[in-house]
Every structure is written in structure tokens, then in C-alpha cells.
Write a structure and sequence with these properties.
With 142 residues, the protein is α+β, with helices and mostly antiparallel strands. The protein has a domain of 72 residues. Helix content is 49%, strand content 13%. The strands form 2 sheets. It has a two-stranded antiparallel ribbon. Strand 2 and strand 3 form a beta hairpin. Helix 1 packs parallel to helix 4. The protein is elongated and about 65 Å long. The structure holds zinc ion. The site of zinc ion has 8 residues, from loops. The site of zinc ion (ZN) has 8 residues, from loops.
């Protein structure tokens, strides 16, 4: 028997496997098919009750970190293909030597902030020069 949706009011909430839910920075994070999540068949919203979300926290964290690792690997490969020297990038961003190579091998879990920064640089390489200028000038920030 479907339950009532707290968002649209329809009695269309059923368990669904392989759902995509909002989690931390990701508006849509796909869960493994082994996990069943309530979904409204009318409005399409997925949701977890608080007790189930607590029970799933380790799984959600694992999915979240795996997504960050894949994104980091992809962006590091893109930077390499575009000829960005990884060591120079590590120095500019204050990262330890070899860290970007480790991310390129999906070893280590980057912060979402670092993934976003690397993606912005890969998308527009002149941003790296902007960061160099920021560190040199500290204009308006010192
Ligand atoms: Zn609904």
C-alpha cells in the first residue's frame, strides 16, 4: 500500500532501488541497487526518514567519497591532457608533492572544495595564472 508523499500529498510513495538522492554537495547522488529508498511515483521526490538516513550514513558517505574520487581522477586526467604541470599546480594550491598523482589514481579522497577548484582550473586554465597573481599581490586581502 503506497504511503502519502510529504511533498505533493499523493498516496504514491513506494520503495525504489538505485535511487538518486540529495546528499551533502551533490543534488543527486545515485545509491547502490542494494539500497531501497522511498520515492513518490507522482512528483518523483526521494526521501529517507531520519532513522533510515542514520542507518545508511556509512553507505551514503561511501557513495559520496567514491563520487569525489571519480571526479578528481577525471579532472586530473583532463589537466594532464591539457599540459598542466601537476607539480606546479600542487605548489600553487599548497598541496603535498604527488597528491594530484594519487588523486589521478583514485587513491585518497579529496575535499569537495579541491575537486571544484581543480574543475574550475581545468575548465579555464587562465584561472591558474589568476591564483598566482592572488598569491603574489594579495590585492584587497592582506
Ligand atoms: Zn510526491
Amino acid at each position: 500500500m503506497p504511503r502519502q508523499c510529504p511533498f505533493c500529498g499523493w498516496f504514491g510513495v513506494r520503495a525504489q532501488r538505485g535511487a538518486a538522492i540529495a546528499f551533502r554537495v551533490f543534488p543527486s547522488l545515485t545509491l547502490p541497487r542494494s539500497i531501497s529508498v522511498p520515492m513518490c511515483m507522482h512528483c518523483g521526490k526521494h526521501f529517507l526518514d531520519p532513522s533510515k538516513e542514520v542507518a545508511l550514513t556509512p553507505t551514503l558517505n561511501a557513495c559520496y567519497e567514491a563520487r569525489l574520487r571519480v571526479m578528481a581522477q577525471t579532472v586530473v586526467r583532463t589537466l594532464q591532457q591539457r599540459g598542466t604541470p601537476l607539480r606546479q599546480l600542487e605548489l600553487t594550491l599548497g598541496l603535498s608533492q604527488g597528491y594530484l598523482s594519487r588523486l589521478g589514481a583514485k587513491a585518497g579522497t579529496p575535499s569537495p572544495a579541491l575537486v571544484a577548484l581543480l574543475a574550475l582550473i581545468a575548465d579555464e586554465p587562465t584561472r591558474l595564472a589568476q591564483i598566482h597573481r592572488l598569491w603574489a599581490d594579495q590585492k584587497g586581502l592582506a
